[in-house]
């Protein structure tokens, strides 16, 4: 009668559970043979050790045909046994190495199937293991550790059985086996290989523990006979290696990892050897005891059980290979991903150092890809990337690696060439990329910025990649669509820049930043109408640094947002101090500059609101100055941001007016209060240039009902001219330099007018326009 | 083979009457007594032995008796005596008590030793009657197997006490015993046939026994066993809380434990409502597969047919002298009283005039293959030729 498919695996579970309950060796053997026979409905089961029958069920006492049992050969056969008659027999080894113990099973009604043979072998091994462990227990009764190990092993095996019973996907089951083997045998690495279904001379890795992703691909296949695993397969027995690197045929990757000891056991399917299970350790003193060898054999048996589904085997090989491929390649373009590229680069560098040749890395960034993605959509963007990837592949030499790192960044690794030759490849690439891409009726012309770096002898793969990245960045800085070769100067620059970045980061954290304040004064009365806050860096070594020395760096380093936040909060704090001190400065608004990135930050309005409420300030006490070019860059979005800021009640000014490309219609839409004329136009009022622009701007501002502030007023002549043109307010060295808050407070200690301002300024204006236009500075 | 029955209220009279009827045939070699425990058992057994002095006697108390041309109802005190005899038979009997130490296994091993006392004729069987409340009956099989080996099949049943579940009794000679294994080794020139069928159907998908301890089943597929049982089988509301209602339901909804060629049925005796576990009457091995099962009169009767058929087929064409049936009380629970009559009728049909005797057991023994042989909610038929 054919056993039902699901019955087999449960019998082993039952066996495992039952066998774990025996207290001593004798009971385990007696109980073990009974359960063995029960599991396969056999009439006789016997354990023979050292040519003696130590346990047997099925014969009357005194009628055990010992000699006949002992003479049984391994494997299946039919025998005629006195008092039983003709029976089907199966004899298996209980322990592999010493071949001292065997199990014999006899059944009357049907021969043993392959599956049953696997089951019986599994049970025999577990029984051997239990007996051995029980022996140990008996020797060291107080040793609870052994008991725990036995329980753990059996529990593990039971769990594996459960996953098989629950029809878990085969890869889940195999992973449970390698994990179990690795955990219980204290092995850093475990690897299960199965013979490839197309090429029987190749063993494929199908499950592993402790193997790095970049090594996985390299060791995915193994020749039969090679390595410990291959040998176990070929010789159908457990193989031990106390010194892995000494052989036989050690895998270079494993040697490189530092694996020292290993053992492997063969795995069967349908009675034929089908693969091997290997465990290995970095510990040079690790030796695998007999008990542990038995454990490995037990795990190997379980693998055999799990593999009995023929189609599963094929699926496993395919699924694992696919998974490895997915883990190492970019999904969209099929190119190697970052992990694989780094690995290949590292290997190339290793080879290069041995053969005294060079490795060059090209870092390729598509210019303005972001705007293509944004304007034409992501599906077109993806298509572009795929086409570019193809072109890169054809532009490089056969052995070179092309990889996609992320977004629109690609990398090429070239072995065995110098910088000049690599540069020629870079040129080929640039040319290939520049050929128009024809998509859905459009022709897209792309360009790329390429950074080229040569690997230094003692650098790491990451270092080289970073150098190439820096070179690429420089290419972008220098205008894009060009190739830049990394050199030492870059490195120095880069280091200096990194230094500065760190210093700036610290500066923000350690309070090395300062705000200085410059007054904005009404041109007819000389009254203080606003204060502009300007950031300074009190550098411990270099002293007080002006913003143009560090703000661009802050923008690049992504520090502008925290820096900006600090400025806003500090300005608010200072204001609240002035108010608390009842200084006249507390009654005036403080204006803060906003950079493009700050203006675009989604959290800006929230930040401002929080600062205002933290220091209990009305919105009108704060002002923001945004340059014309920033506003016009994305005018629609700017309108919305300005509106949201306005709702907080803050004052808004357009800075550096006249230097950007203003759209008059947007100008009308912007909810701003003030226009600040760029200093370059003010300088022309010295009598050397014309006042046409300034007067036009002032007229425009008045037409739009906006205040006008002239920046950079340094001479009386300029001042007079501005006053005659009815410019509302002025700012500049003439009226007061930017100063520390205490110093400014001193200047204005007695009132809203700076006593140091020239009295000439308080003359009535000559244009006849009414002085002190009623617009108060605080609304 | 001869079968006699009496439902006389007086133990001595009943015993004597039934025995005389059974002894109609010549040369009896073995007497088997099945009776209700409501009788004064020592008196009854003595009465039987007096009717047939020197003949080995075995027997036990039951949860109902079976005999052809009679009907048996629980609580209807009756006694059935079977006499097996004739030239081609050799019989030896023995009993042993299950002690603290060795338990049922040792007792079975011991009692089964009588096998070596019979003449080595062509066919043989070991018939055992045990105390159904004395422990793990699988141990009886193991112990007996160790004594007689693979060549001797095993049949028998567990004594009952009309479903009171307090004390069952086994008879050997004139002794009335408890915690005993009573064995009769029978060898015969004519064939002996054994049929085993349970007639329960599987319900739903198999589940893994994730936690069990001996006969207590805690979890199936990591779910509390009691809950899984009640839900999957759509038990009536009372069964969820009332122990009596549960047992009533469980009587016809056993557990099936996966084995190589089918399943072994396990009776679900009671529910532990607090721990949400099921208490069965025999081991439910951890790590194995199990099904819930159900049955109805139809399936039970079909099993009756099949078991008889199997037993008779094994006679190789020889005319049966009679049949002895060990029928589980649970099967009776499915059929009800009317159904019982139908079963008895079928047994009679198969026997084709030959006598039939048997009883309703708390468990059945039948081992013809392999090493296991304890069954629940199953019908075991021994046909003698």
Average pLDDT metric of chain A: 82
Outline type of chain A: elongated
Overall mean pLDDT of chain B stands at: 84
Largest interface: A-B, 40 and 26 residues
Helix content of chain B: 25-40%
Structural class of chain B: alpha+beta
Q: What is the count of structural domains of chain B?
A: 2
Low-confidence stretches of chain A: 765-779
Distance between the termini of chain A: 99 Å
Largest sheet of chain B: 8 strands, antiparallel
- Beta-strand portion of chain B reads 35-45%
Radius of gyration of chain A: 41 Å
Topology, number of strands of chain B: 25
Cα end-to-end separation of chain B: 9 Å
Subunit organisation of the chains: heterodimer
Q: Could you explain how this protein is built, in words?
A:
The complex is a heterodimer of chains A (779) and B (385). The longest helix of chain A is centred in the N-terminal third of the chain and has 26 residues, at 114-139. Chain A is of the alpha+beta class and 779 residues long. In chain A, the strands form five sheets. Chain A has an eight-stranded mixed beta barrel with strand order 19-20-22-23-24-25-26-27, surrounded by four helices. Chain A is built from 28 helices and 27 strands. In chain A, helix 1 packs antiparallel against helix 5 (144-165), helix 2 (25-40) runs antiparallel to helix 4 and helix 4 (114-139) runs antiparallel to helix 10 (290-306). Chain A is 46% helix and 21% strand. Chain B has helices spanning 11-22, 41-51, 103-111, 138-148, 225-232, 243-251, 297-313, 329-351; strands at 2-6, 28-35, 57-61, 65-67, 79-85, 89-97, 123-131, 154-159, 170-172, 175-177, 180-188, 192-197, 201-213, 216-220, 223-224, 255-259, 262-266, 268-272, 277-280, 289-294, 322-328, 356-361, 364-367, 374-375, 379-384. In chain B, the strands form four sheets. In chain B, strands 13, 14, 15, 16, 17, 18, 19 and 20 form an eight-stranded antiparallel β-sheet that branches. A six-stranded mixed β-sheet of chain B has the order 1-5-2-3-9-10. Classes of the chains: A alpha+beta (779), B alpha+beta (385). The A-B interface holds A 1, 3-4, 6-7, 10-18, 34, 37-44, 57-61, 63, 83-85, 107-109, 158, 161-162, 165-166 and B 115-116, 142, 145-151, 206, 208, 210, 258-261, 285-289, 369-372.
